[in-house]
Amino acid sequence: MNEFKIIRTKDRDAVLQSLRAGVVPRKGLHHIQVGRSYEVNALFKDIERVTEEGSFIRFIIGEYGSGKTFFLNLIRSIAMEKKCVTVHADLSPDRRLHATGGQARLLYAELMRNLATRTKPDGGALAGVVERFITEALKSAKERDVSPDTVIREKLEHLTEMVGGYDFAEVIAAYWKGHDSGNDELKQDAIRWLRGEFSTKSDAKRALGIRMIIDDANFYNMLKLMARFVRLAGFSGMVVCLDELVNLYKLSNTQARRSNYEEILHMLNDSLQGTAYGLGILLGGTPEFLYDTRKGLYSGLVDFTGPIIRLENLAPEDLYVLLTKLRHVFAAGDPQTYLMPDDGLHAFMAHCHQQIGDAYFRTPRNRIVSFINLLSVLEQNPSVNWRDFLGSLLLKEDVNPDFEGLELEDETLEPAPLSSNHASMSNDTDDDLTVFKL
Q1: Which among 85, 339, 358, 418 counts the fewest CB atoms within 10 Å?
Q2: Percent helix, strand, coil in the chain (nearest 5)?
Q3: For residues 393 and 370, is the Cβ–Cβ distance under 8 A?
Q4: Which residues neighbour 119 within 8 Å (Cβ) at sequence distance 6 or greater?
Q5: How far is Cα of residue 314 from the mean position of the Cα atoms in its chain?
Q6: Which phi and psi angles does 371 have, rounded to 5°?
Q7: Which of 212, 271, 229, 245 is nearest to 112 (CA)?
Q8: How far apart are CA 132 and CA 136, in angstroms?
Q9: Which residues contact 35 (CB under 8 A, 6 or more apart)?
Q10: Could you give the strand order of the β-sheet that contains 279-285, starting from the edge strand earlier in sequence?
Q11: What are the residues whose beta carbons fall under 8 Å from the beta carbon of 354, sequence distance 6 or more?
Q12: Do residues 239 and 50 lie in contact, with contact meaning Cβ atoms separated by under 8 Å?
């Protein structure tokens, strides 16, 4: 009996197509996961804490090509298996944690568009979460023999004690009103508000009867409200994944950069003080973002019990295991159809080392693409030996695009002082390090 489990063609193609494009697959990550057992176990415990109404924040720090995005997606999939809702987004010049020109609202809107559950892992699950809340309320009302309005108001009462909670609850009530009366436009307006798509208070007033909107000023408060709401809808909690924090490090405006760092420290304090119920936050960035003493969010915490997880680069042994898994996925789980023997994998690694040195295993993204392309050529030419192609395979070292053209000099702006409960800073115009203590 074959001990290997056959991989579905759909899953196989999804993994290979993403890897050939140089991006992390959305599905099938367990087929190609290598190492990181300590890090995964640490995050697994964090997610367990979220399911028990706790909170956590983790900085996932690693060099370019070390697998940060892959690791974040892996943790997201684990969170969804634990019945958590996940939201994720990449930071960019147009999407930041703190801003005054709508960038924080755009980040919130992107997070809500990517809201995912176990049954809808590709995002767009916000309406389904609200529908589940309504369904649970109707079920409870039937069991108690009371009106659905009574149950919904009782559930939403838990939100009104939080900042912005009253208006949030009114939006959910408006969705129920639209659901009960068959008013699809009202339901859609409620979802638009929850996604942060209303840009003016007058539009929200006309559509929903409330004057508050989700904007730059209440970005984080809305995330905490959403985390509380998904628990009311029957989920275990919410995990937020924010990648590419290097874009905060790259901000040339000193005041803007420090304001964003202060928002991170606000999240850190809330998590450590236990005031963000059922909310986990993962922040992915390069070492420069965290450790740079001029422009980074500096911290000396490096163990797994603290908020920082440092992802080390893969070792040659890890890359070999990864190649065996890629070969297995390419063969759809059937060892009888492997296109290269183990000797071929060793020869491929030796060829990589000869061309680009140790970078072949430290930043393996391009090597993965090259290996899959090699397997594709072998699949299309079954009569040709793998040795005939290997010698002509050209490789190039991965280059981090994040720091290309990065200006080293900041604008000469007077930095805004941080609040004392977040961080302590000097008032010099030059960049100095941000310090926070646990």
Answers
A1: 358
A2: 50, 10, 40
A3: yes
A4: 125, 128
A5: 21
A6: -65, -45
A7: 229
A8: 6
A9: 314, 315, 318, 321
A10: 85-90, 238-243, 279-285, 55-62, 308-311
A11: none
A12: yes
φ, ψ dihedrals at 88, nearest 5°: -150, 155
- Per the structure block, which two tokens stand in for 208? 């929903």
382 phi/psi in degrees, rounded to 5: -65, -20
Tens of pLDDT, residue by residue over 283-330, are 998 888 888 878 887 643 444 446 888 887 777 888 888 889 988 888
Residue with tokens 């009569």: 383
Beta bridge partners, 281, equal 57, 240
State the DSSP H helix or E strand holding residue 90, giving kind and residue range, or none if neither. Answer: strand 85-90
Tell me which long-range contacts 21-27 makes (C-beta under 8 A, separation of at least 24). Answer: 22/365, 22/366, 22/369, 24/69, 24/70, 24/73, 25/73, 26/73, 26/121, 26/122, 27/121
Q: Which residue is listed with tokens 């993204």?
A: 365
214 neighbors 198 (Cβ within 8 angstroms): yes
Domains and CATH numbers, the chain: 1-34+314-398 (no CATH), 36-110+237-311 (3.40.50.300), 127-216 (no CATH)
Residue listed under structure tokens 């699949």: 379
The predicted-structure confidence for 191-246, as pLDDT tens digits, reads as follows 999 999 998 899 999 989 888 999 998 999 999 999 999 999 999 999 999 999 88
Q: How confident is the model at residue 85 (pLDDT cuts 50, 70, 90)?
A: very high
Looking at 191-345, which runs of residues are DSSP E strands? 238-243, 279-285, 308-311
334-393 pLDDT, tens per residue?
A: 888 888 888 888 888 888 877 777 666 666 777 788 888 888 888 888 888 888 777 667
Q: Tokens 């760092």 belong to which residue? A: 261
Residue 192, class by beta-carbon neighbours within 10 Å (0-12 exposed, 13-18 middle, 19+ buried)? middle
CA 147 – CA 262 distance, rounded (Å): 45
Closest CA to 269 of 234, 222, 224: 224
- Residue 169 corresponds to which tokens in the numbers above? 């609850």
